Amino acid sequence: MLRWRLILGFVFIAALVALLTWDHSAANSPESFASGKPGFVLIPLALVLAWLASGEFVSLAKVRGLNILESSVRWGSVVIVAASSLPIWWTNATSQSLVPQFAWPLLALLASTLAAFLVEMRRFEKPGHVIDGLGASVLGIVYVGGLLACVAQMRFLGLGGIWGVPALASLVIVVKAGDVGAYTLGRLFGKHKMTPVLSPGKTWEGALGALIFGCLGSWLSFEFLLPRACPDGQLPSLFPAAWLVYGVLLTPLGMAGDLAESLLKRDAGRKDSSHWLPGFGGVLDILDSILFASPVALAFWLLFA
Q1: pTM for this prediction
Q2: Contact predicate 294/147, CB 8 Å
C-alpha cells in the first residue's frame, strides 16, 4: 500500500505541475487560445473537484441518516466555484477590482443557500427532518464550494493573475509538505498522541515534523518558485521572512483541515470519504488540508503582497 501511495503521489504532483505550467503559460502568451484568461485550464479542474468532493460529503451525511439533497450540495458547490472565475473571463482580467471579484462567489453562496431552502419547501411532506437535512446541505455547500472558491480565487492574484499560479502552488506545497513531514516524523519518532479518539495515528512529534516541512516548502516557494514565475518588475513586494509567517500560519491550518474531515468521517463511521483512490481515499481526503488553509492563504496574499 505504501508503494502504491508513493506512485500515485508522484503522478499527482507531476500532473499538478503540468497543469499549473500550462495554465500560467496559456494565460500569459499573446498567441494562446487562453490569452488574458487566467485559470482557463485550472478552473475546469476545480469544477470537477467540487462536484466529486461535494458528492463525497453527501455520502457521509447519508450514512448518518440525514435527509440531505445531493443535487443542492453538488450544484451549489459547482456554481460557487464557477462564480469565482467566469465573471472575470467575461471582462478584462487586468481591470478587475477586488470588490466585484469577491462579490460573485459570495452572491453565488447566498443564492445556493436560498436554492437549498426552496428545494426543501418543494419536497416537504412531514415534519421531523427538514432542519437536519437543510443544515447538512448548507454545511456541504460552504465547506466544499465556499472554501474551494477561496482556492480558485488565488489563481487571479496579481495584475491579470500574473502571480496567481505561484501563490496557488505555494498553498498546495506548504500543506502537502506538512502532510509529508507529519507522516515521516510521526512514523519515525511518534509517541505522544495528539487526538487519540479523533485521529489515533497523529502525534505531537508528527505535528512538529509538519511545521518543519511546511516552513521548508514555504521557503522554497517564496525564494525559488515565485521569482521564476513572475516577470521582472511584477514580483510582489513581501516583507522580510514572509515565508516563515506563511508557513507557520498555513501548516497548523492544514493539520486542522485534516482533523476536520476526520471528524466528519468518524461521525459517519468511515475511514475514507470514498475508495476510488487506493492509498489516499477520496477527493475530499486529498483536499481537506488545502480547503481549510485556503482562506488564510488568500488573505495573506491580498494583505501583504
Answers
A1: 0.90
A2: yes
